[in-house]
């Protein structure tokens, strides 16, 4: 079924094709070309990040971060269960075991107060996921990591350009992962970036990304031949995609202000339904600067959510939910986790609904989404 109002529509700023055209003219299509460097430098500059490396996806950035954590089979990594599969897969691929922790009621981020109880002698890392572009409690998380000598890998796939106490997400831990998938704020189809804040890990990050070779050092003239020096894979993305991404990153503010308008309209209009106890709305703590990645509502029950989705579908509107908690998914159950272990995660997973939010959503379209929600609840 074609929806009149889809859940997401990638926003095109207008300069993407001409940048891709330049890329073709210069006949430099592989990774680490001019556009890749410009994207990386733009993010390093604007986010005050030590090093940013473009990758093929947010997933591959997480996989690189997991490799850089130097895990051994059986090591444990603390993370939320309420997240996308890549958060866990990156570490499982290294033989590590995800240890799932419940979330906070307000932000749906990992509950930092529950992290310490999940730490064992095998714990090596904590992976805060900045859900919906709202920061996890990084001061508390970094303090726990320092006490137990753990790495912190921020899954900032949804958190590009968002802040915590004025610092950009992805730059607060040891490593950060960004995503430029078409469902995120700034896009290039499929893409991501690894942020490295540990100076001593920068060289190894470049090597892992370049198939385990020192090719980056070779191009800078630091070594006279390039060769196999470590494990690695092909994590760098084509300069064609970087050209597309540069156009988007140069228009970050415009994209964010369009998303902000949509977000604030939902927040303002739906407040009346929240006051009547029919739903709860997202919370952004004062010290967190959101990037307006997502607008969700939390309904009273799974049954109401199912009926609301159906009501919206009939009106040509697509609203979606996520995540199946990782601990109750087949992979999580296979690791010995069971339903009932993380009550808040399970409850939110049943009741949260994401509304259409993209930079190109018109006021008329959004009004239609809002009035259908009011109609569903029989509130005029
Ligand atoms: C989107 C997303 C990812 C994966 O990013 P891709 O670029 O699609 O690989 C990882 N974690 C979270 C929380 C995400 O939202």
Report what the structure shows.
The protein is α/β, with parallel strands linked by helices and 380 residues long. It folds into two domains: 16-250, Type I PLP-dependent aspartate aminotransferase-like (Major domain) (Aspartate Aminotransferase, domain 2), CATH 3.40.640; 252-377, Aspartate Aminotransferase, domain 1. The chain has helices at residues 16-25, 34-46, 58-68, 85-92, 138-148, 202-209, 215-219, 239-249, 252-275, 302-314, 330-334, 343-351, 363-377, and strands spanning 51-55, 76-80, 97-101, 123-126, 151-155, 163-164, 167-168, 175-179, 192-196, 279-280, 288-289, 296-299, 352-354. The strands form three sheets. The chain has a seven-stranded mixed sheet with strand order 1-9-8-5-4-2-3, with helices on both faces. It has a three-stranded antiparallel sheet with strand order 7-6-11, with no helix packed on it. A hairpin with a 2-residue loop joins strand 6 and strand 7 (167-168). Helix 9 runs parallel beside helix 13. The longest helix has 24 residues, at 252-275. The chain is globular, with a radius of gyration of 21 Å. Pyridoxal-5'-phosphate is lined by residues 57-59, 83-84, 86-87, 129, 155, 157-158, 179, 181, 192. Pyridoxal-5'-phosphate (PLP) is lined by residues 57-59, 83-84, 86-87, 129, 155, 157-158, 179, 181, 192.
Describe how the helices and strands are arranged:
Layout: H1 16-25, H2 34-46, E1 51-55, H3 58-68, E2 76-80, H4 85-92, E3 97-101, E4 123-126, H5 138-148, E5 151-155, E6 163-164, E7 167-168, E8 175-179, E9 192-196, H6 202-209, H7 215-219, H8 239-249, H9 252-275, E10 279-280, E11 288-289, E12 296-299, H10 302-314, H11 330-334, H12 343-351, E13 352-354, H13 363-377
Parallel strand pairs: 2-3, 2-4, 4-5, 5-8
Antiparallel strand pairs: 1-9, 6-7, 6-11, 8-9, 10-12, 12-13
Helix pairs in contact: 1-8, 2-8, 3-4, 3-6, 9-13
The structure holds pyridoxal-5'-phosphate.
Pyridoxal-5'-phosphate binds next to helix 3 and helix 4.
């Amino acid at each position: 079924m074609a929806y009149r109002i889809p859940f997401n529509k990638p926003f095109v700023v207008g300069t993407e094709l001409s940048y891709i055209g330049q890329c073709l003219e210069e006949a430099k299509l592989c990774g680490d070309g001019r556009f890749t460097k410009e994207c990386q430098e733009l993010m390093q500059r604007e986010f005050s990040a030590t090093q940013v490396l473009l990758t093929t996806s947010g997933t591959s950035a997480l996989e690189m971060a997991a490799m850089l954590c130097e895990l051994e089979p059986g090591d444990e990594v603390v993370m939320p269960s309420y997240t996308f599969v890549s958060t866990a897969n990156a570490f499982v691929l290294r033989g590590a075991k995800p240890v799932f922790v419940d979330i906070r009621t307000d932000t749906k981020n990992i509950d930092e107060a529950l992290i310490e109880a999940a730490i064992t002698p095998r714990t090596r890392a904590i992976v805060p996921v900045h859900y919906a572009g709202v920061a996890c409690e990084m001061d508390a998380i970094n303090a726990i990591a320092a006490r137990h000598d753990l790495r912190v890998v921020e899954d900032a796939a949804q958190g590009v350009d968002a802040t915590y106490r004025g610092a950009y997400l992805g730059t607060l831990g040891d490593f950060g992962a960004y995503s430029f998938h078409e469902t995120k704020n700034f896009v290039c189809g499929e893409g991501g970036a690894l942020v490295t804040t540990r100076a001593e890990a920068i060289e190894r990050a470049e090597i892992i990304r370049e198939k385990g070779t020192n090719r980056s050092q070779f191009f800078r003239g630091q070594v006279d031949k390039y060769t196999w020096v470590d494990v690695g894979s092909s994590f760098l993305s084509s300069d064609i995609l970087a050209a597309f991404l540069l156009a988007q990153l140069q228009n970050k503010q415009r994209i964010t202000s369009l998303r902000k308008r949509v977000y604030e309209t939902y927040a303002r209009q739906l407040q009346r339904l929240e006051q009547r106890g029919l739903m709860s709305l997202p919370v952004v703590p004062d010290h967190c600067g959101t990037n307006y990645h997502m607008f969700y509502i939390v309904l009273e029950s799974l049954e109401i959510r199912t009926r609301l989705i159906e009501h919206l579908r009939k009106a040509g509107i697509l609203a979606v939910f996520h995540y199946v908690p990782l601990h109750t998914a087949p992979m999580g159950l296979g690791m010995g986790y069971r339903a009932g272990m993380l009550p808040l995660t399970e409850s939110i997973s049943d009741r949260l609904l994401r509304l259409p939010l993209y930079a190109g959503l018109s006021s008329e379209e959004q009004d239609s989404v809002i009035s259908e929600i009011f109609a569903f609840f029989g509130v005029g």
